[in-house]
């Protein structure tokens, strides 16, 4: 049948209208979740597991359900197009419209969830810095002299006592260790567009990893060696950056 036929035009108009409704519904679900998530974040203490659980529920209501609806509706639409004997060359572009909307939803949700986790990280960092005493005195186990301790350390360190020379192992506050995860969330926020490009084409992977780990190294210089090792492992592995 001719693509100028009223039947064909009506089907395509219906499909296009359906996809617009999908996008509107996605936006509606996300917008309605913003205030509850804001309240949830304001009540966080030192972890964001409740935010993760909430986002999983929102993802199910938005991306998963709507993506399935696109697939199911396209099957019916394709069957209708076959009934009026439309050439596949004129069918495929409309399937691609659905795939484009689906990709749009996934990308938008990635941006949304990354921003929410970053907001949660900011709240957690504030809570940690409010309760950790930077001026607390750490004494040598041998002579009780004051040790030159870096409170914001992220791993165990050996500290030499300036008075007696004995070596003490300093274990940082567990809440301080959690700041490392906070900066990972900030790095995700800083590199979200690069990550989306990487997921679309692996040729962008090296740029993403350099920017991601570069951000963390800048913020956590005391962990530079560890994150440089992770970066080099990624850049040297074709599984992550291609050949």
The overall number of domains is: 3
Number of strands: 2
The CATH architecture of the largest domain would be Orthogonal Bundle
Portion in helices? over 70%
The oligomerization state is single chain
Tell me the strand order in the biggest sheet: 1-2
Low-confidence residue ranges? none
Q: How big is the Rg?
A: 26 Å
Structural class given helices, strands, pairing? Answer: mainly alpha
At CATH level 3, the topology of the largest domain is Topoisomerase I, Chain A, domain 4
The separation of the N and C termini measures: 47 Å
What is the strand content?
under 5%
Tell me, what's the shape? elongated
What features would you describe in this structure?
The structure is a single chain. This protein is mainly α and 243 residues long. The chain has three domains: 6-131, Topoisomerase I, Chain A, domain 4; 133-172, no CATH class; 191-241, no CATH class. Helices cover 71% and strands 3% of the residues. It is built from nine helices and two strands, in the order αααββαααααα. It has helices at 6-42, 49-83, 88-131, 174-177, 179-190, 192-200, 205-219, 224-235, 238-241, and strands at 157-160, 167-170. The protein has a two-stranded antiparallel sheet with strand order 1-2. A hairpin with a 6-residue loop joins strand 1 (157-160) and strand 2 (167-170). It is elongated, with a radius of gyration of 26 Å.
């Amino acid at each position: 049948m001719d693509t100028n036929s009223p039947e064909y035009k009506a089907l395509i108009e219906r499909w296009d209208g359906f996809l617009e409704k999908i996008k509107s519904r996605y936006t509606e679900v996300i917008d309605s979740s913003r205030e509850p998530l804001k309240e949830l974040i304001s009540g966080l203490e030192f972890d964001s597991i409740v935010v993760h659980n909430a986002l999983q529920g929102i993802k199910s209501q938005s991306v998963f359900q709507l993506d399935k609806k696109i697939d199911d509706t396209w099957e019916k639409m394709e069957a209708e197009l076959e009934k009026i004997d439309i050439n596949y060359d004129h069918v495929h572009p409309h399937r691609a419209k659905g795939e484009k909307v689906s990709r749009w939803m996934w990308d938008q949700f990635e941006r949304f969830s990354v921003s929410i986790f970053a907001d949660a990280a900011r709240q957690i960092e504030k809570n940690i810095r409010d309760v950790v005493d930077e001026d607390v005195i750490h004494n040598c186990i041998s002579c009780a002299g004051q040790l030159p301790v870096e409170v914001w350390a992220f791993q165990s360190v050996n500290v030499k006592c300036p008075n007696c020379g004995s070596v003490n192992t300093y274990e940082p506050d567990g809440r301080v260790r959690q700041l490392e995860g906070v900066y990972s969330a900030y790095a995700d926020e800083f590199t979200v567009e690069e990550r989306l490009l990487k997921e679309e084409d692996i040729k962008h992977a090296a740029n993403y990893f350099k920017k991601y780990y570069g951000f963390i190294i800048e913020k956590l210089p005391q962990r530079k060696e560890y994150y440089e090792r992770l970066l080099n492992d990624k850049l040297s592995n074709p599984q992550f950056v291609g050949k």
